[in-house]
Amino acid sequence: MFFHQNRRRQNNYGIYLLAYQLFNSRYIPPITLAVIIFQMAIFLGYFPFLAQHRAEAMCLLPSRILYRCEWLRMLASTIMHVDDMHLYFNMISLLWKGRRLEPWLGSNRFLLLLAVFAVATSSTMVGLSYLADEVFSFNGGGYMNQCAIGFSGVLFALKVLHTTYFPYSDHNLFGWLPIPSQLACWAELFFLQMLTPNVSFIGHLSGIIVGLAYTMGPLKTVVDILESIISLLLGSIPKSFSQTRNRTRSNNRNWFTNLSFEGRNSAAYERPSYGWENEQRNFNEYTGGMSEEEQLWRATQRSLYEDS
């Protein structure tokens, strides 16, 4: 979202709403929860150098980044927010996406992805702003001097991953309009720009581009290399995607079931329960810990690869 001085709010109603949602969510993966709490702490002023009064100095301003080398803006801008409701909507979106993606990817890789996506979306936004102003001169220029702030770019990248890994999930625009999974990100980008013109179109578009670069391009290879390097530096052996995902799904589910908050509306956020999970016999050795939806997706992908 573009930063404007007069958009600052004087109350923290969004913080109370977000805290209520967290306390009434039965299962929240560890990295998702930690990132949400971290950004809440930033907004509440627990990190003075990222306090709200410094939002204008930390927002993503492409001209300052390119011509004055203010590189800190590329990271600081993604974890700061304009006001409490901006923070609330972004963190609820992260909560929903993290509940699916973190168990699927593994907590360590999910944390690495958030860091890579934060840098990649900011870099892409700077590049697109430069192209729009200096090369194509869209709308008379001005993109290089637009100050953007917020986690939305990373969220759009995560949405691309979600629609790729869970193509059979329901995708409803505004909670009621069904949208094909392949078009969900683009539809949301279009309608957000129509309803709230002050949002950063280039920032959201950058998130979609980064998500596609991960699912269809070279960014996944970069993340794989970084994950291997970090694993070697920490003295552990890099694990395959499936091993990490299956192990983390089982561990996170058992751990957070014991530490979860109970609430009336928790069913809306908890992972679907399948009948065979309640039986004494362990079926994970046959299913790999995957749900029926995930087994169907895996079988479809394997069939496509075998046919090719």
Automatic annotation (TrEMBL):
InterPro entries linked: Peptidase_S54_rhomboid_dom, Rhomboid-like_sf
Transmembrane segments: 31-51, 110-131, 143-161, 173-195
Record key words, sorted: Hydrolase, Membrane, Protease, Transmembrane, Transmembrane helix
Molecular-function annotations in GO: serine-type endopeptidase activity
GO CC entries: membrane
Membrane topology: Multi-pass membrane protein
One of the protein's GO biological processes: proteolysis
Primary residence: membrane
Localization in the cell: Membrane
Gene3D superfamilies (UniProt xref): Rhomboid-like
Pfam families xref list: Rhomboid (PF01694)
Location of the Peptidase S54 rhomboid domain: 69-216
Similarity comment: Belongs to the peptidase S54 family.
Entry protein name: Rhomboid domain-containing protein
Species: Brugia timori
